[in-house]
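Friendly challenge for the regulars: who can give me the structure tokens for this chain first? No prize, just bragging rights.
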Amino acid sequence: MNRNEKRNLLKQRIFDAAFRRIEKNGLIGLRARDIAIEADCSLGSLYNAYTDLDDLILNVNSHILMMLSESIGQQPAENLDPEENLRLLAQRYMNFAYDNYNLWTSLFTHTMHDNTPIPDWYLDRTNETFSKVIAPLLRLRPDLEQEEVSQMVRTLFSAVHGIIAINLQERFMSISRGALEEQLQNFVSIYAKGLTVET
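First reply, four minutes later:
Bragging rights claimed.
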């Protein structure tokens, strides 16, 4: 095994250790030293493999985004109308949040230290994941410019995410998973029908 292979193997061990800890506990109390111990390497080796803890978390979160992307589907279902597609995406997003809560929250609770900008490669992965909402919205409103549709995507995602997050965090009045799914479907339908009325 040459030096590059050893380095890649070590990097993967560190990544796997970080992923397991985030999957179990989220980002609460996540420390580089604990990850190094679980990966059976020194703290210096961890920082040789990853620039810092932020870099490691971003790599784990990028993988989580890939998992989310696969969970909600690679492409909109062409046999469904746009409203049904949006409901399906919302349902799959909710299921991912429920079934992978700690991984899901890691995407939204991580903040970069010292106001370091989020790297472009991570922003690209994020945009790629949530771009699946664009096609159904474009079918609903083909008259709109791309930027207007992108704003709608951000608005719809923020609403759907907020509904799920508040319920999972048991803030205010939480409801059962089945009831939330029904209400979420109703909300997305109302949103989609409102867009259709404007055409």
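The mean pLDDT is 91. The two ends are 62 Å apart (CA to CA). Your move, everyone else.
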